[in-house]
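During the no-cost extension, the postdoctoral fellow (Dr. R.K.) reprocessed legacy sequence entries with the updated structure-token encoder. One reprocessed record is reproduced below for audit purposes.
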Amino acid sequence: MKISVETRILFGVVILCPWMSLAHAEERGAFPAAAVACGADDVEFDVKTDKSQHPTLQPEAGKAVVYVIEDIPQQVSFHITQRVGLDGAWVGANRERSYFAFSVDPGVHHLCASVHLGGFAAGPSTISLRRLTAETGRVYYFRVATYDRGFFPDLQPVDEDEGQYLVETSAHSTSHPKQK
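Re-encoded structure tokens follow.
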């Protein structure tokens, strides 16, 4: 009997998410880098995507711009939300091969990508962290690849050519924290 990729992923999520969420709550405090970069564990996002528009953000005077592009396998058929944190607060979220951009002040910043699926926050092993030293007037691109075996995000910088291509071939994402 052949089991589809979606079925295997869903089974893993149902079995592992409650454990991962508890483990994450206990272990996050043990990882200062995660606490510095990520936002609060209980924040969920409403995410809307639009494939018809590809707005670009230019750096404001004295600022830099960061684009974050979600890159998930095409065969994944259910919603994975990737939350993105900067310096200890969530700045937005992506879903369904999308991107968003935000401005940052020059200097050292700490980025976090975290998978959030079906109300369960990902565990500590499903957080990806990057340090960014932003320079005035620059544009930075990051790809968050999420692998289908356990939803492990991989936050990686990409060069401008790759970043622009990913933006052009992805939907634009707008997100807001859900009201509780």
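Residues 5-177 form one domain. Confidence is low (pLDDT under 50) at residues 4-29. The remaining legacy entries will be reprocessed before the final report is submitted.
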